[in-house]
Amino acid sequence: MVETLGDPHQLAQVIANLLANACVHTPPEARVEVRVGTVRTGPDTGGTDRPGRSSATGALPPDVPACVVEIADDGPGLPADTARQVFERFYRGPSTGASGREPGSGLGLSIASTIAEAHRGRLELDTRPGAGATFRLLLPRSVGAGPATRP
């Protein structure tokens, strides 16, 4: 069992957004996997910066126990310039034609990233052209690390 503290409605919104994006932007022939587990943050597991990984928030400290949810596909991946922009408010990437639908408003990933940050976590993307994409939500496992409060 994997557990973390947080607002269940907000965290469900993050997961729903990531799944919706996978359905809209991944070609029908590509596989999409949902993975849930625990990790210690680092270059190979997530939470820290490295080439090919982007996030709207700074890196988490290395070696922090974290709960992780990954939405991963084996589709075409994203070029580096697009990957760096996906968390920006109102950014709408190039249409892939995967769903035949118009791209959204460009707010979903920005909101999801803000929710992750409010929970002292991080939403990130690992991708490169031809290598698929993995959106990763990392949340601290520590009981004392619940949602951040704002003054």
Keywords, separated by commas or semicolons:
151 residues; alpha+beta; Heat Shock Protein 90; 5 strands
Descriptive overview:
This protein is an alpha+beta fold and 151 residues long. The chain has a single domain (8-96, 103-140), classed as Histidine kinase-like ATPase, C-terminal domain (Heat Shock Protein 90), CATH 3.30.565.10. Helix content is 23%, strand content 23%. It has 3 helices and 5 strands. The protein has helices at residues 8-25, 80-85, 108-118; strands at 32-40, 53-55, 65-73, 122-127, 133-140. Strands 1-3-5-4-2 form a 5-stranded antiparallel beta sheet. Strand 4 and strand 5 (133-140) form a beta hairpin. It is globular and about 35 Å long. It starts with 7 loop residues before the first helix and ends in an 11-residue tail after the last strand. Mean pLDDT is 85; it is low at 144-151.
How do the strands and helices of this protein lay out in sequence?
Layout: H1 8-25, E1 32-40, E2 53-55, E3 65-73, H2 80-85, H3 108-118, E4 122-127, E5 133-140
Antiparallel strand pairs: 1-3, 2-4, 3-5, 4-5
Helix pairs in contact: 1-3
Report the sheet-strand fraction: 15-25%
Gyration radius, rounded: 15 Å
Sequence of secondary-structure elements: HEEEHHEE
CATH level-two architecture: 2-Layer Sandwich
Low-confidence runs of at least 5 consecutive residues: 144-151
Task: Assign the CATH topology.
Answer: Heat Shock Protein 90
Let me know the number of strands: 5
Query: What is the structural class?
Result: alpha+beta
Discrete helix count: 3
What helical percentage do the residues reach?
Answer: 10-25%
- Biggest sheet strand order reads 1-3-5-4-2
Instruction: Give the oligomeric state of the chains in this entry, treating copies of one chain as homo and distinct chains as hetero.
Output: single chain
Query: If you average the pLDDT, what whole number results?
Result: 85
Q: Which class in CATH terms?
A: Alpha Beta
Number of domains as seen in the coordinates: 1
**Cα distance, first to last residue?**
33 Å
What's the main sheet like? 5 strands, antiparallel
Would you identify the CATH H-level superfamily?
A: Histidine kinase-like ATPase, C-terminal domain
Describe the global form.
globular
